[in-house]
Here is the input.
Amino acid sequence: MPTETPAGETGINDVVSIEINGSVGLIALDNPPVNAASHAIRSGLWQAVETLQQTDGVEVIALYAKGRTFIAGADIREFGKPPLDPWLPELCNFIESASTPIVCVLHGTTLGGGLEVAMSCHARVALTGSKVGLPEVTLGILPGAGGTQRAPRLAGIATALDMITSGKPMGADEALANGLIDRIAEGDPRDVALSSAKDLLAGDLPNRKTGDLTAEPDPAAIEAMRTKLAKSQPLLFSPHKCVDAVEACHLPVRDGMKEERRLYEECMASPQRAGLIHAFFSERAVTKIPEATATAREINSVGVIGGGTMGSGIATAILLAGLPVTLTERDQDGLDRGVATITRNLDGAVKRGKLSEAGRDDILAAKLGTSTDLGALSDADLVIEAVFEDMGVKRDIFQTLDKVCKAGTVLASNTSYLDINEIAATTSRPQDVIGLHFFSPAHVMRLLEVVVADKTGADVVATGFALARKLKKIAVRSGVCDGFIGNRIMTFYKKAADYMMMDGASPEQIDTAMRDFGFAMGPYQVADLAGLDISWAANKRRAATRPAEERYIPIADRLCENGWFGRKTGQGFYIYDDQGSRPNPEALAIIDAEREKAGVTPRSFTEDEIVSRFMTAMISEAVRVLEEGIALRPIDIDAVFLNGYGFPRFRGGPLHTADVIGAGELVRRIEEYAKEDAYYWKVPALLRQIAETGGTFAEMNAKG
Ligand code: 3H9
Here is the structure.
């Protein structure tokens, strides 16, 4: 049914319109925010091509999109729902077989199904600065609308394999060099569509059906990719299927697409697909917070207090985002160390191609200031304190900041555990005080916990989220508790690991089991990396309030008493030297001695039991964090673990995993484990309720 559209355009439906301009039939797509190929886009586009093909005088069709991008992919929100005709593969084949030549104009990010539509057109023009890619693999699937068949025909098998198995987009220049597009142009999508259509008609642009081309056979590239993936991604499902699909490109295009469809369906049915798509939406949903409508304060200058690893990493992240930073330390030595760390971090960014040498020199010369006086921060819009975890020291700093900073400065603490309410109460402006908890290395890790205290102003919360956007980080809102969302849950599940270690599992066995589950590192590798002295300090702080019923495992403390703090001292649970790392026999001897002292007869653990206890502990504390309102929704917890704790992305996060295991099974496990330790293993009320009502955490997410 045609709808109202701007002059000259006829609406095919709400999101697709056509316009006749001489011999050119223009098709415009308008489906904000990213022109996803929804059912309306697919059916509208089909109808638009059909209409224009049958329109007298139209000799060429040009397809473009309005808004910020050409089609950024199939509409992921439709996945899992009953498919509605026309399917994207059919639409692509229909476009390719059109009797009237079709050119498309790409701008923004033409991804997945968007690039598949483009590759089905007879010519492609991309606007300067645009990107193209086939990121399906990051969602646990493969390009399912001919992408695995047409990309190798245009770009060659080796390039197609790289782009499809990595999911990484490429710039227009690279796409042109690889043959994925035919031209780069400047201008407005509609204007370029019009001029490109005329060029296609005049023979100034190639007019080809991609499916008619053949891809040069390259069995070596296929084998090399299989070998690489077997090593680098042994746990993932879809990258391997991507290779199988590309291998079918020697078949006629329609036959190859049948094989592609079969493999696509296998990926769609895989639980990894559900986990990866959950991860994608979680990372976007976390920005939906109660303070989202408040206006963020403007941040043009930042002060960072503390030049240790954390403070220097935070300063680096902010400098890389283009903001000036004043770093303060207690003395010149501290400042020198901080500047040296920042310089090393920036050198690393240059090496990784994230920054030019001139850019680094400019940052060091013009953007980074230093001082040993907190008074130097009087004019900063935001100050982030990153000194060691001592409430007394933090109080002194915030009292001074209260005196020296201008009105309206956002005063943030990077504390990992301490009470932001208590810190805020030391100032006369608690509304300006917030927790900004970065993860080390702060210029690399994507997570930022924005910790909202009782009196934090809504605009200050919005400022934390705006800062995260500027730093390209994922901000998650957390309430105040010991350790906030992430460290609180980690402290709890780390105990489950320690109990298994005490009862008979070795640290290496536990680490291996969790790596096989998909974690980047096991808990003892993480502890060694973070520094055992850090948790030792926290253990001492908590000792006075530790309930008598709690089973306490002092093994890591014993290691620290020997001066073994993990990686930084060359040994902890593992030994670190030129040959890499290996289990520390002296740590194993300490474990044996502690077992004997406690009268524990070690027993054996299977990998399944280790994973089960570890994950059940993680999930039960995650549910308590949710019950107490520390996290807004299950997805906030999932986003924290995916981005700050190396949680396997294909498993979607702890509470997505809880849905996979099932609340009933989790309750059963906790009750079983509680027979040995009823203090540690308790069923959270919310988990029991979900188990009894047959609900899921996904339903809680959907309610928001
Ligand atoms: C595919 O194509 C399969 C085919 O091969 C086969 C089919 C048979 N669908 O990221 P942003 C939403 S699979 C639905 O914040 P940015 C997103 O949730 C697809 N919704 O913006 C958010 O919504 P909200 C392959 C989508 O500018 C809003 O758009 N394509 C989709 O930072 C803005 O997103 C991909 O994997 C979608 N496809 O980044 C591309 N994409 O405002 C996935 C986005 O309600 N998308 N939304 O939270 C991206 O990588 C980024 O969104 C993009 C824009 C780079 C496009």
